[in-house]
Design brief:
alpha/beta, TIM Barrel, 2 domains, nine-stranded parallel β-sheet, two-stranded antiparallel sheet, 13 helices, 13 strands, 14% strand, globular
């Protein structure tokens, strides 16, 4: 397993991000000092990107989800254990796992508890056929006895709090999220997060924020809302509409870590925009090594430069360059292009970009 470097996050956005003295909410005895949270996303919620989003204000982090079966075998040469890697000061951190057997979920949870997560979460929201089709992910939601057994076993045997992430249900005829949420809490869950779409919707249609509000009224633990938070303004709109304790952002955060600081991408200076990309790439290379780090960063740079036609040619070069120094030269060219082509969209200010330092 790749070892993460211990680091200290320095936040420099012109003004320091305001220190929140009181927790926004508690997950049992775990304080959470903020109300915007990076969602667990396969292929994206890794150590480097979590570090970057935390620097911009993401208040709590989830690992990429891990199948429990992969945690019951040997650790050596097991890529799934790497998903549970973490920075030394990364708190609160949630390990997310999934499965379809309560006893195996418990066995896996007991093993990973040794790595000292703050919370262990059960994924009951993944809608992919590979996961839900075997009764895991959102495939757990129709199985109320399995949910009760799972949370009872976990809450009675683990020292850390247990949570779960759900959807509205399998489809519109089976919107059983309130019942599932109550079963979870009655059996020891300390937090419920919900993506306000059904399994059948996946990521289509519109997230139903009214249902998040109903869930918040139905349970006496913190509720995190998820779905259709696409802009800075949507964060406070969801909180006001639903009364949820925090907002979880997934797809809208890819290529846009500034959203956790409630800062619109359009209001960045060219220096802020490019400096953040450089910072992210440095974290990727520092963690994965130059070759793999640059390869994995290609999917991120596509999102950073989305909807920027003037960057199309330089993006093509970035996706082919193999040397880190060569990429940084292209970043300098990108900054010049942005300064020339977007003098009104990227507002010039004296603020500085956030940095992550070891």
């Amino acid at each position: 397993m790749i070892q993460a470097r211990s680091f200290q996050v320095q936040q420099r956005c012109g003004k320091m991000l305001p220190m929140i003295k009181e927790p926004k909410f508690w997950v049992r005895e775990v304080p959470v000092y903020g109300d915007v949270i990076l969602a667990p996303m396969a292929g994206y919620s890794d150590v480097p990107y979590r570090a970057l989003c935390r620097a911009f204000g993401s208040a709590m982090h989830y690992t990429e989800f891990v199948p429990v079966e992969a945690l019951l075998g040997r650790r050596s040469k097991n890529r799934f254990w790497q998903r549970l890697d973490k920075k030394a000061d990364e708190h609160p951190l949630v390990f997310q796992i999934f499965g379809n057997n309560a006893q195996k979920i418990l066995e896996a949870a007991l093993r990973i508890e040794e790595l000292e997560p703050d919370i262990i979460d059960i994924n009951m929201g993944c809608s992919t056929r590979k996961v839900s089709g075997r009764g895991a992910g959102v495939g757990m939601m129709p199985q109320q006895q399995l949910i009760a057994d799972t949370f009872q076993l976990l809450s009675h045997n683990l020292k850390v709090p247990v949570s779960g992430k759900i959807r509205l249900g399998w489809d519109d005829s089976q919107r059983n999220y309130v019942e599932v949420g109550r079963i979870m809490v009655d059996n020891g869950a300390a937090l419920v997060a919900m993506h306000a779409r059904t399994k059948i919707q996946q990521y289509g249609g519109q997230a139903d924020w009214d249902e998040i509000a109903r869930l918040r009224q139905a349970v006496d633990v913190p509720v995190i809302g998820n779905g259709d938070v696409c802009s800075v303004g949507d964060i406070d709109k969801m909180i006001a509409h639903t009364g949820c304790d925090a907002v979880m952002i997934g797809r809208a955060a890819i290529g846009n870590p500034w959203i956790f600081n409630r800062q619109s991408k359009e209001n960045l200076t060219p220096e802020e925009f490019v400096s953040t990309i450089r910072c992210h790439l440095n974290e990727m290379v520092g963690y994965y090594g130059e070759k793999l780090g640059m390869q994995l960063f290609r999917k991120h740079i596509k999102h950073y430069l989305a909807n920027m036609p003037e960057s199309r040619e330089i993006l093509s070069q970035m996706l082919r360059v193999a040397q880190l120094n060569g990429f940084f030269l292209l970043l300098s060219e990108l900054e010049t292009i942005v300064q020339v082509s977007r003098p009104k969209s990227f507002l010039i200010s004296d603020s500085k970009a956030i940095s992550i330092s070891s």
